Amino acid sequence: MNRNSMISNIESNKSWDFIIIGGGATGLGCAIEASSRGYKTLLLEQSDFSKGTSSRSTKLVHGGVRYLKQGNLSLVLEALKERGILRRNAPHLVHDLPFIVPNYDWWEGPFYGIGLKLYDALAGKEGFGPSELLSKEETLKHIPTIEQEGLRGGVIYYDGQFDDARLAINMAETAYEQGATLLNYVKVTSLNKNEDMICGVDAIDLETNKKYSISAKVVINATGVFTDSIRKMDEPECKNIIVSGQGVHIVLDNSFLPGDSAIMVPETDDGRVLFAIPWHKNILVGTTDTPVNKFLLEPTPYEEEIEFLLSHTARYLTKDPTRKDIKSIFAGLRPLVKSGEEENTAAISRDHTLNISRSGLITITGGKWTTYRKMAEDTIDQAIVLAHLDFEESVTKELRIHGYHSHSDEFGNLEIYGSDAISINELLNTDKKMSEKIHPNFENVKGEIFWAVRNEMARTVEDFLSRRTRMLLMDAKASIEAAPLVAEIMAGELNQKQNWIDFQINHYKLIAHNYLVN
Length: 518
Prior knowledge:
Strand content: 15-25%
Number of strands: 18
Largest sheet: 10 strands, mixed
Number of helices: 16
Structural class: alpha+beta
């Protein structure tokens, strides 16, 4: 993917079948869905791909065990089906992960055991592995650092894990390969109408300040927590439909949870599920669910959320984490659709909502990462009808995601790139300096910076350190130390001067400060 060629596409093509606003999981899914059916597709993202919610998840591809308790079997069934599809189409990024539910009360083993057998049954042939009751000794084999006092045993079940931002980038590449045009750092400023029907958008390239007026048969709003801001461009008086809960995660080193198994606590004090998950040789602990009123691209954790995660983690692990042990902390906002007067956002369903306004704006919102493909399929089905286009069937159930490789572990530290690792290794072989580490705490090398700029549309230091790699989320302090080197290499690739380097370093430090715990 090359941004300059993408800009050329919108300058030479004034009319599209679909314009998709939003470059997170849902928008990118819609771009794949539309372009793979042969429709002329343009996606515009005001920041970077997956900058918001889609890069800040719990990194799980799952059916949603807690939705069983809510009785939402249809959502669980759909998510389990999509989980299997995603593992088949992106095995380089999606893999099985064993979860242990520790039991401390006599009733927990049979209660959770039955519930997880239902989970297995709903998964059917898409199952990742059968759940089983574990003795205390078997539980300790899987989780040697689990709190032993009062431990009776556990239940093991299997779900999926992935790298969310890396999948988003691969999805953008997939849409591009199917013929879509995708642009980051292009902001939609208004919706255009002809005889009260939406016929396109006005947008501005935030890098050059150049403005564009672009026509389309249908405009799709896939902007997550920013959904209502786009809806109000269409109908200024419309009522907000989005509420949001903030999910916070802390990252610890893997001494707190050695091994390959995760912990799942089905219900915490606030009714949320708590996870402690191995991820990129660290441990990811989350999540909270705190109602928020402001929707920001860079949400920040609240003090009480940090304390909540530390105190609850300490209940289940023999080694109690402190603030000093937190390598990084990040917050994400969940786009939840109002369905009543719920005060607790943890109780709101994660079903997706599809809405068509009187002037033809299609809004797709809600849902979850795991079900992005089905959300996109439903959206494009409706968009085709609204646009009066010939209907083409969806092909995405069988469409491999860019980077597909069934044994990507053979690429070692480049595993997350899947089949692209072959080309990256060729790049590394052109110059010994390409294989030099970016920072002693990370395995990432300089060649990855060149690759991200040339092939993955990385435009800023934060793009690279937060989403093309996950350094910011794994060790915020070390990522700040790596920023000057990254800025210098990127400046050379992007033909930028010293003032750009200085700005990027300073801007990155401001962002990364939110990921540090004082």
